Amino acid sequence: MKVIIVGGVAGGASCAARLRRLDENCEILMVERGPYVSYANCGLPYYVGGSIEKESDLLVATEATFREQFAIDCRTRCEVVGISSDEKTVDLKNHVTGEVTTEHYDKLVLSPGAAPIRPPLPGIDLPGIFSVRTVPDARHISEWLERGTTAPAGMDKYTGYQTVTKPQRAVIVGGGFIGVEMAENLVHRGLEVTLIERGSHVMPPLDPEMAKLVNGYMTRHGVRLELGDGVAEFKQAANGALEVVTGSGESHMADIVILAIGVRPETALAEMAGVEIGERRGFRVDEQMQTSNPDIYAVGDAVEVKDFITGEWTLVALAGPANRQGRIAADVIAGRDSRYRGTQGTSICQIFEAAIAQTGVSEKTLSRLGETDFEKIYLYPNSHAGYYPGAKMLAIKVLFRKSDGRLLGAQVLGEDGVAKRIDSFAMAIQMGCTIYDLEESELCYAPPFGSAKDPVNFAGFVVADILCDDMPITHWPDVGAGFLLDVRNPPELEVESVSGALNIPLPELRDRLDELPRDKEILVFCRSGQRAYYATRILNQKGFKARDVAGGMLSRSHTVSS
Amino acid sequence: MKVIIVGGVAGGASCAARLRRLDENCEILMVERGPYVSYANCGLPYYVGGSIEKESDLLVATEATFREQFAIDCRTRCEVVGISSDEKTVDLKNHVTGEVTTEHYDKLVLSPGAAPIRPPLPGIDLPGIFSVRTVPDARHISEWLERGTTAPAGMDKYTGYQTVTKPQRAVIVGGGFIGVEMAENLVHRGLEVTLIERGSHVMPPLDPEMAKLVNGYMTRHGVRLELGDGVAEFKQAANGALEVVTGSGESHMADIVILAIGVRPETALAEMAGVEIGERRGFRVDEQMQTSNPDIYAVGDAVEVKDFITGEWTLVALAGPANRQGRIAADVIAGRDSRYRGTQGTSICQIFEAAIAQTGVSEKTLSRLGETDFEKIYLYPNSHAGYYPGAKMLAIKVLFRKSDGRLLGAQVLGEDGVAKRIDSFAMAIQMGCTIYDLEESELCYAPPFGSAKDPVNFAGFVVADILCDDMPITHWPDVGAGFLLDVRNPPELEVESVSGALNIPLPELRDRLDELPRDKEILVFCRSGQRAYYATRILNQKGFKARDVAGGMLSRSHTVSS
User: B459 with B512, same domain?
Assistant: First the structure.
């Protein structure tokens, strides 16, 4: 059997190595268009930023690794220029020699990845505008950042314009993972960074109110955020700088522009092979990663996957799923019954000293689908025991199904312990946990690492209280002209207060019930929601109609649109 | 309804607060023998060590909190001196006034905790010998450490002996959580620390070969470990120092001794109340935390719990379970159907720059139960992507059932990302995951936080390979006189090699098969087990009988007893 694998990075490389382990005798040819196989795509921003020092650190495995350890015929700078699925052949162009050869396959695995979107804007091809996809991309960005001088100099070899200073101003177009990571890394390199995002918030997979919390970390580190505005045009100014003109007519001067608008599945190979493309414009595959042609498999960022929660076809460009899909394709080719379970979208992104992570479905997605059988909570627990130094506040949003308590999604932001919590939630979602399972989870605790009641347990407690109607809740955007009761202590109100809210500190509540209306709903809040919960319990047992405003004052500033 | 809760720390305090939230009208009396309620027991070693600076930081909630926020009659320095379960009364002694009063209850919740074991050794009551259970204990240790002078001085007010220097030498008796945490914290305070542990290793819940990895962290920081030796006697030397004489006849001089031999359920209340004590000498309760008397509940370190994996009755002194049990007792008293699912023993302990954590069952326990339907693996992955700075090697042991792949337990040690991995394993065990579920887990990945194939996934991959017989394994203690094949590269052998092993580097293996025997089993190893796995796959497909030595060279030094 001869298997040809097209694309030698995450999905393709995983498939090749796995297949060799399963079948020592099959012939494996892995071709990669670029100069490197198995490189650390996700490390590119950190290489630009300097925390990964050597380009060679990005190379997880080399052609030699594949040849020597796996007896795989591995060819770089080799591109598929034709596929005949009838003949079961591919035409391969060697970009070094220019030669085109034809190779037969029994099984073909396509792992072409997804390409950065480059909209056909005026000036998009000007020098100094970069995408971040490959090792050479990162190298070119680094070279560009190192060019120029700090004193007046001659003609720049790239632009033909006078260079005066080293690049100092960066404009990043797009606020997804790559855009946010590049912003951080360019700040680390000392650049002034402006990030332009067409949507209303950075990190589009997040819900807007959680993404809003990211803004603070960006702006505190000097990143200028231009949200709700897109690029209309790139121009070259007389001094060789780039001028980025936005849809709103703003103009931003830049010495370098990073395009991070998103990626789009590379489907040229699908067209060549005549295999089905799905509605989201990715390869359509079954749960065994098989395309519409039973001898052709596709894996990685180029394929559509089923959303683990909603069952929708979706595009998710993540390294973990790509690697698993590569393994599964290899398993199936080797005659094993492996199946892909769908993608949860578990992801994490460093934002300076913080991290933002998510897993499962967002409220945005549920709303888009017209789903109403869900509710959300916000909580702001410490990352570990508050009495041990270094505890940081986490901001957590949890989405769950009202009818049965099933956990649907979680978003976590903070400066400590984020990855730990999102992984617990991710594992819980994978196993179909309900919120009642989270109440009972036994997670690790010692003062430096957690709390006796972990934030994940707390999420369970809070939701269980809602589901059994111990704690009816509402949210700030829905408060309207309701009767607001603030149960914080007076010194807390001096920091920030809500106009029109009645203040009765929790310890006084039982004695001051006669100040409260019995004919209307009382919307109770405190700092984070805990004392408001206690107050809600008291009031509802005393015959009032009370609701807890989820997340208290801590959720107010980011859930109410300003 | 009147509920009396005895014990105001983790289990009792959780029960009291929860019960008030569920029932605004019941009368709740919470009594605590000591001076504080709801204090951070687990923080005591860090208060002694100075990383928690103020004693008040240890007080999570005070009597006032319970009175004001929860309308709970909360009394400290108040001890139960009698229980009449027929009359449904308790006799309470106020330790300030000496007065004894009798209070009626409808429901009684006992949360007395567990007391440090103080064996009746000669000299155990000498001044300078401390346990670490309460805030006053920690305060007394701190005071003792601060006494003395750095210059010659007069008579010591405690011992009556001449004091010459501040305490400099500590002996810790017992190598469990408290002993190990105290060792770290006393080193932080500048003491020379000797830790004496009667068992063959520190951290008794761990398996010995994993505990062995802890030793390095202790000794590198100057802790002298005396394993396999117990204390026979404490003596006071002429200069006021303590002499700790061990069973083997060794003598260790100390200026302070910490007893951390373990804890024992406080069952005096069980005897007073006439409720059942189990075979492990803890309160016997059902899954609703009810004792043999339906009006009496017991929670926390004093109760026996069902081991989540083995179903055995066991004693586990952990804060998380105590808190959950308190909630459950409150729920049940308030008429709700909550049930305790058993204890997994999820725990974590900081050891200087590292952490050791575990969840589920240990191999020790499985062996003690005569269980044979299990296997183990060792893996040594990076805590996050190796190409991003700061990645640290984790040492992971995973136990699983051979017949169905169910995850039974995990132990993780390392300097980064330990809590994250143990919590993923803990959640997986809670949900009855198999190893095949771990293969498919979608955990968070970005270079600073993880890897595209997380260590948890890797555990799944490796075990799945074992279970489907792709990779037969063996362990170092079982290799005996087997034929050993080392597939590392020659420079690696210069660092450390195994005598008698044949070296064929993996890349040369396919060409040198004729050097290998076809008539006996070939036991293959490399550094961590990955290349050995590749080699095992090649060999077994080529008609040899090969096994992978689990964990490679990295597992050798700690799994083979020296």
Answer: no
